[in-house]
Amino acid sequence: MTPRPRATYSMIAKEAGVSEATVSRVLNGDSRVDGDRAKSVLDVVERLGYRKHRAATALASGRTNLIAVVIDNDLSIFSDPFWGTVTSGISRVLMENELQTLLLVTSVSSIDGPVAHYLQAGEVDGAIFFQLHKDALVRKLAKTGLPIVIAGSPHAATDFVFVDTDNFGGGHAATKHLVNRGCKKVAIITGDIETVAGHQRLDGYHQAYRELGRVPAKALTAYGDYSYESGKREMARLLADQSDIDGVFACNDLMALGAIAAIEERGLTVPNDVAVIGFDDSVVAQTSRPGLTSVRQDIVALGEAAAELMIAQLRNEPVEPRILPTQLVIRASA
Amino acid sequence: MTPRPRATYSMIAKEAGVSEATVSRVLNGDSRVDGDRAKSVLDVVERLGYRKHRAATALASGRTNLIAVVIDNDLSIFSDPFWGTVTSGISRVLMENELQTLLLVTSVSSIDGPVAHYLQAGEVDGAIFFQLHKDALVRKLAKTGLPIVIAGSPHAATDFVFVDTDNFGGGHAATKHLVNRGCKKVAIITGDIETVAGHQRLDGYHQAYRELGRVPAKALTAYGDYSYESGKREMARLLADQSDIDGVFACNDLMALGAIAAIEERGLTVPNDVAVIGFDDSVVAQTSRPGLTSVRQDIVALGEAAAELMIAQLRNEPVEPRILPTQLVIRASA
DNA sequence: AAACCTTGTGAAATCGGTTTCACGTTCACG
DNA sequence: CGTGAACGTGAAACCGATTTCACAAGGTTT
């Protein structure tokens, strides 16, 4: 029951009758070791239930097997299930590849904060960032050669490796669906337009109009901030302005629910008077009444893709940004 | 711009004109070092922007400064914002205390899996587990002396350190509130009754009845599983059985919404015919219509408390389990 | 048959801290 | 004053792996 003392190379070497160097070679897949010796080393390793000591390995090799997942807690971390879900996907894939997930929840804003130092100090082999407004820090880190993946699109002019949902396609599909079901005047309530994701959804909306040979009136675009309240407020404003709006694409589910509330408060019904589509297909979309039609994004897959891109970078394999498809989930609201 | 080579003890020692041992003493708060020398060491440290090398420190000292957060992905990780929120609280507090959060999303079920080995191998200084059904693994780890904290109550007969929401008090307050607003026949839809949390909420319900000098009929207890569907199904069943139920406490918000759906499908209204209370005060409670009265638990605080208990253990300070209060948030549904 | 590669191997240095140990110094006390 | 305790200090061992380097053995080229 007493936990036997940790096995070390020196014990293995002695048991197997070889040198520590050979043990290291075997365990790191150096092909030059004689077959029989390799086998006997592996036997001893097996018998002793040996596992490498992380710190020792890191110190000697310079590789930590740690990947940082950096989450800016300036954002609405505390209520949004998004990041937790992505992170679980990341963690699973990393673990399958013998990498560990180091979670850094912190204010990323400062380019010179403790996180910055930490990441530069070679304490991790790579870092996965969630979408952020300021990418100065990321850019600086990239210069040091630290492998980086961004979950969510970075700002336009960079060449970071990133994974993202197809926001454009989602916005396009949502708008198209509204048009196809007969809506004549489709409005949009955007999310934070400062973020790339927010902008891309709007672009998708525009594109759908363009394909009809039309251009959406400026007045049909309302600017929300992803909150329930903003959805409600903007919808009320839209309807007060143009009572003949018969469809609305809200850039997330919460705003969609807010919009529905505003519509019903005006005595109109969903979807008969105004059809509503949200984005995310979160739990609120599934449980709201009427059920909310929404653009589903596969958040776990997003995390997994991020991890895969990180691993590819560590292996010096070529990497391409990855855009994951969305799927329109049709419920009662549109 | 070239990242200057990492500073080391030997550089600091030379610069400050002392030995490496003294540098170590200064940096680890050994009080015996002469004041002036200490100062000069600190000056050099400052000037060089020195930071300790984690792996080296871990190797030499046997302490890793890493705390594992172990999440069982057998659970409904992927949609539940709960764990992500707790984890962010944990991470913040740990970071403030110079500890890092190592995230392990994995199947904890096996007592002999890779995680088990990992945790036993001294790779982390402590582990925080989320509530789990089987605590065999945790018990085994505890025997090795690894500091452990459980987020959520462990099974009854153990003496693990844990933090939890006051499930009993929450269930009690919810039931009491229904009674106080005039409900004569209050039902409950439980969550997974196998979990301690699930059971405690039910106990709170019972206690409220007891204080009225009554015992709730067996038929008023319906067993759900925290899903929207189970809430809807059980509520329908309850009403089919006993149409005079006028209040229901659902053990989470999702089931509460399901219950509301069932109630309205029957042609009844909330809260006039049946008042409904949920648990969690999650985003769905805030955005549903009618607004859902719910028992709020402070999830971030839960994580922070977990981290604090871990830190106390690492310092060998005495630790007591911590039960965090709940708060009834009253909206339209009850 | 001399000169030159391979290939497989172990001794030893190395990574960057921590900790033990032994050696002065200084100080208090008898 | 002599003596033991307390204090500061640096040399060196140590943590557990990786990696360099030297070398022996066997195989190829001229």
Automatic annotation (TrEMBL), chains A, B:
Molecular function terms, GO-annotated: DNA-binding transcription factor activity; transcription cis-regulatory region binding
Magnesium as UniProt keyword: no
Database matches in Gene3D superfamilies: 3.40.50.2300, lambda repressor-like DNA-binding domains
InterPro entries: HTH_LacI, LacI/GalR-like_sensor, Lambda_DNA-bd_dom_sf, Peripla_BP_I
Alphabetic keyword roster: DNA-binding, Transcription, Transcription regulation
HTH lacI-type domain residues: 7-61
Protein's name in the database: Unannotated protein
